[in-house]
Specification:
Blueprint: H1 3-9, H2 28-33, E1 38-39, H3 43-47, H4 57-72, H5 82-89, H6 91-102, E2 106-107, E3 112-113, E4 120-122, E5 126-128, E6 132-137, H7 141-150, H8 158-168, E7 172-178, E8 188-194, H9 197-222
Parallel strand pairs: 1-4, 6-7
Antiparallel strand pairs: 2-5, 3-4, 5-6, 7-8
């Protein structure tokens, strides 16, 4: 078994923000800035549905999580797997590889809040030119190879990427998959994803309903009294 495979088997729980430069994405300051907000990185959970029409568990769990954050003012404790840690550690290298290939400068913002919809935002992996963004994934080698062969962004990232285009008002996203373990010519995959206003309209409506549900729960909890 390789050292990397061994690492992936040892999943550990660690606090968000540990070892991250202050103010950067993943830092303690960043965590508190996004407390209680419906975030683009969780839009796939927010959009999930069941075949029988009932609420899917990921959506329910995320709603309760945000209610807890709004009540406590504290970020939720999240499980960080070795896969997730690997992705975070290699994100900067992926960004530099993209800059080297395209010749474009990437600006990394902090947490961006939606201009009109309160309690909604996201942390874009990078802004490019005046109308573009990037979304970086550093997945398992298997997933990266599947993406290379498919030649397109996996559908599971649609809600997140379109969410970022929605909150930033930008026109396109360069989706990046990066795996430095592969031969150099296979390490970087870039696919341009255009803004989809029809999808964004559906996303907007879904997020509004989700945030209304959170407000309803907060009002209910504000007057909660346990029965004698």
């Amino acid at each position: 078994m390789s050292d990397f495979d061994d690492m992936l088997e040892r999943e550990e729980r660690q606090p968000f923000g540990a070892g991250v430069e202050p103010g950067a994405q993943g830092s303690v300051e960043w965590l508190y800035e996004k407390v209680g907000h419906a975030s683009c990185s969780n839009f796939a959970d927010l959009m999930s549905t069941r075949k029988d029409g009932k609420e899917a568990a990921p959506r329910r769990d995320y709603r309760i999580e945000l209610v807890g954050e709004r009540l406590t003012g504290q970020p939720s404790e999240r499980f960080v797997s070795s896969y997730m840690k690997w992705g975070t550690e290699h994100e900067a290298a992926a960004r530099m590889a993209y800059e080297a290939r395209t010749g474009k400068l990437v600006v990394v913002p902090g947490f961006t809040k939606h201009a009109a919809l309160q309690w909604c935002g996201g942390s874009v992996d990078g802004l490019v030119d005046d109308d573009g963004i990037i979304e970086i994934k550093c997945p398992s080698t298997k997933t990266h190879i599947e993406t290379l062969l498919a030649g397109t962004m996996p559908e599971e990232h649609t809600a997140q990427t379109q969410g970022y285009l929605w909150i930033t008002g930008r026109a396109w996203c360069d989706f990046i998959s990066f795996d430095p373990r592969l031969p150099e010519h296979l390490q970087l995959f870039v696919c341009r994803v255009p803004r989809n206003d029809d999808y964004i309209a559906k996303l907007y409506a879904t997020v509004e309903v989700f945030l209304d549900e959170i407000e309803f729960m907060l009002r209910k909890l504000a007057t909660y009294k346990q029965a004698a």
